[in-house]
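As the work plan foresaw, our protein records have gained a structure token line. A representative record is set out beneath this paragraph:
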Amino acid sequence: MTAHIIRHDHTEDIQTPMRILIADEQALFREGLEKLFESHPNIVVVGQASDGAETVQLVNDLAPDILLLDLFMRKMDGLHVLRRIRQVPGVRTIILTAEIRQQEALSALRMGASAVLLKGSSSQKLLECIRSVHASGDSIDPEAVADFIDSRVMTIESIDAQGYNRSRFTRREMDVMAAIVTGCSNKEIAVKLSISKQTVKHHLSSL
């Protein structure tokens, strides 16, 4: 077992920091993330885990605010971890993966993940995603989004199989869905796309 608990004191931060648990097989990746977060006093890394079983143990022991979870780990993969921790209150999960595969991403969202992010993303994008997921007061239900995307993909595949014209998302629909999957709330989508919250809701309802 290589899991360990980490304590940091950031006395200069007057706000309660976000408590993060990092779960990934690669020690260098975990340590790199911890080093990144050291310069952000509103983030505290409370622990690290190198496999799925350790992750479940530490989530239950520490109840972090945010779990950064690798999908593919030893002993228990990320999807099984999500299934095991669904009943732990207050824990939001961001999936970090080297490659976003459609089926795994859909399954992760259905099981309660708040966002899916590529490991190759910039540190700024990761930090924005963490803040967004932590704040997520009006975030869209990931399970509903997963069901929607899955149904639209199936529809497109069925149309192609029958030789009819391919059904496509509009560019704006794709922009909205991309923002949803990275953990953005309605308000954040509106700011990101320079549209009103009502317009965001309109796009969602018309998808």
